[in-house]
Design a protein that fits this description.
Tripartite tricarboxylate transporter substrate binding protein, BUG, ten-stranded mixed β-sheet, D-Maltodextrin-Binding Protein, domain 2, alpha/beta, Bug_dom1, 2 domains
């Protein structure tokens, strides 16, 4: 009977081992099916009232309903977004603390000497969901009437100044890339935000505005500003008659500002995927699309892997460019 007992014991051990082997998969599935069980915090690295904040609240309100838990917006501005990003990077990787970013996140490693986090390895990409180009514009009474006039002015003895939303912002890099790509000069005048930058162009304190489409459109409609070009690869559906910089002869020029959601690194993939699916579903709603359109944003969606690829590619791109022109802002 001993052989049978041994066989029986071995069978029991194999059964137990097999059962234990299925536990991680079951646990991961249970994590996703029961998530969330408490409020979710979305950290915004800009002050309340701005474009990124508006996006966070719009999507957060919808997620609160679909997930059955409050989604709380937590504004943590400062250091071009690095303060909020560091907070999320060091938060528990459980899906309850998220970071909404724009492409400044991918620029910061190029222009700040010391970051207290690694933008490539300290986050799990969730989704990119919106984009907005910048507009190169001048006051309506400006002697610069066309993009060709701007290029000519930039190659003259008295090059124009351009106002950006701040050091290290996509608008700053858009201006610097234009200078290098078109072999021209412009004096960069950084502001602490897009609103004061455009206000000083309107007040003739700076010659050229490089600002988000969202901020620029109202002044185009009121004929206070005149658009020369958009910075994205393709024309904006909101300004279909305004050509791109590349169309106007600066080959390969493309600076688009994307928006997306990140989680701390090592957040369970099942939770990342659930968040991705819920945000994509929200973005596809006609009323959400309409609200984003009203704010001047084009909608887009991605898989986590696609968004991670975009973030990594942009970090590498801007690091190469910043090194080329020796650009540091701190």
């Amino acid at each position: 009977m001993r052989p049978l007992s041994v066989v029986s014991s071995l069978a029991s051990l194999l059964f137990v081992a097999g059962s234990l082997g299925t536990l991680p998969g079951r646990a991961e599935a249970n994590i996703a099916s029961t998530f969330p069980q408490k409020p979710i915090r979305v950290v915004v690295t800009f002050p309340a009232g701005g474009g990124t904040d508006s996006l966070a609240r719009l999507i957060g309100n919808d997620l609160s309903k679909s997930l059955g838990q409050p989604v709380v917006v937590d504004n943590r501005p400062g250091a071009s977004g690095n303060i909020g990003a560091e907070f999320v990077a060091k938060s528990p990787a459980d899906g309850y603390t998220l970071l909404i970013v724009n492409s400044s996140f991918a620029i910061n490693p190029s222009v700040f000497r010391k970051l207290q986090f690694n933008p490539k390895s300290d986050f799990s990409a969730v989704i990119t969901f919106a984009s907005v180009p910048s507009v190169i514009a001048v006051p309506s009474q400006s002697k610069i009437r066309t993009f060709s006039d701007l290029l000519a002015a930039g190659k003259s003895a008295s090059p124009p100044s351009y106002a950006s939303c701040g050091n290290g912002t996509p608008q700053h890099l858009a201006g610097e890339l234009l200078k290098v790509s078109a072999k021209m000069e412009m004096l960069h005048v950084p502001y602490k935000g897009c609103a004061p930058a455009i206000a000083d162009v309107l007040g003739n304190q700076a010659d050229v505005s490089v600002n988000t489409l969202t901020n620029t459109i109202p002044y185009l409609k009121s004929n206070k500003l005149r658009a020369l070009a958009v910075t994205s690869k393709a024309r904006s559906p909101f300004l279909p008659d305004v050509p791109t910089v590349s169309e106007l002869g600066v080959a390969g020029y493309d600076v688009d500002q994307w928006f997306g959601i990140l989680a701390p690194a090592h957040t369970p993939p099942e939770i990342v995927q659930k968040l991705n699916a819920e945000i994509a579903r929200a973005i596809a709603k006609p009323e959400i699309k309409a609200s984003l359109t009203q704010l001047g944003f084009a909608t887009t969606t991605s898989t986590p892997a696609e968004f991670q690829k975009l973030v990594t590619a942009d970090i590498d791109r801007w690091q190469k460019f910043a090194t080329k022109i020796n650009l540091l802002v701190d």
